[in-house]
């Protein structure tokens, strides 16, 4: 009898795995113009980092669709794009909630396409803009930043003489008007994808293009800790703007 129960438990666990995967991943069909613009490559890693769920771009049989129909979520000039949920996949519903939220709308607006007009949020939300809050462990983030980011960036006074000198310090990055968006998905901004991966978010390294340096592998908790540390820093005093005569 115990062996029968063991087999039953194993079978139940195997059957439950697809359901667990479905809760964390979903298929997304997107208009060709959205994919060609680079917007999807920009917002999907940020969605994954914020929610722990991933979207896979598919051509057919998706759980959600971004296109000319559906609830308005973003726009480019006069063209409005909507989101339609096509299944009850929890990850797809989470994507809809995120994209319609203040942070999702700001993420869309923060994207700068290589060509063409910029995108804007079209959810029609009103009210006071909410500040981005990084709720990771800042103390742990300081250690992680020194260990991983200090290779190239000055992340504290202790690493002032160990960086490569050609990359901005964390304090300098904090002076940028879009510093929140930069730190929110730093792992997806060049050159980081060439040598950095975030578990459950980043794709595997391309075997044809191995990392040029020792790769950096981070968990979502570690990413959030680094973000919280960066948010705790005082922006650098870069002096008054240069006045051209």
From TrEMBL:
The keyword Acetylation does not apply. Residues 1-21 form the signal peptide. InterPro entries: Cyt_c-like_dom, Cyt_c-like_dom_sf. Residues 136-234 form the Cytochrome c domain. This is Cytochrome c-552. GO terms for molecular function: electron transfer activity; heme binding; metal ion binding. Keywords: Heme, Iron, Metal-binding, Signal.
């Amino acid at each position: 009898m115990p062996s029968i129960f063991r087999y039953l438990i194993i079978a139940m666990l195997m059957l439950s795995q697809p359901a667990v995967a479905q809760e964390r991943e979903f298929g997304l069909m997107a208009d060709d113009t959205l994919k060609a613009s680079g917007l999807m490559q920009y917002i999907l890693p940020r969605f994954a980092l914020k929610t722990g769920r991933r979207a896979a771009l598919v051509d057919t049989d998706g759980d959600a669709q971004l296109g000319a129909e559906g609830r308005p979520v973003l726009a480019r000039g006069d063209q409005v794009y909507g989101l339609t949920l096509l299944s009850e996949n929890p990850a797809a519903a989470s994507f809809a909630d995120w994209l319609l939220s203040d942070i999702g709308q700001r993420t869309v607006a923060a994207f700068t396409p290589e060509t063409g007009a910029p995108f804007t949020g079209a959810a029609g939300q009103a009210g006071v803009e909410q500040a981005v809050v990084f709720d990771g462990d800042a103390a742990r983030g300081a250690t992680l930043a020194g260990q991983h980011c200090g290779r190239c960036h000055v992340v504290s006074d202790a690493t002032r003489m160990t960086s490569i000198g050609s990359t901005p310090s964390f304090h300098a990055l904090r002076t940028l008007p879009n510093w929140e968006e930069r730190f929110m998905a730093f792992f997806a901004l060049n050159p980081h994808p060439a040598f950095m991966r975030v578990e459950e978010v980043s794709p595997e390294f391309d075997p044809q293009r191995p990392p040029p340096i020792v790769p950096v592998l981070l968990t979502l908790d570690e990413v959030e800790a680094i973000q919280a540390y960066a948010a705790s820093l005082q922006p650098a005093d870069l002096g008054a703007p240069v006045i051209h005569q």
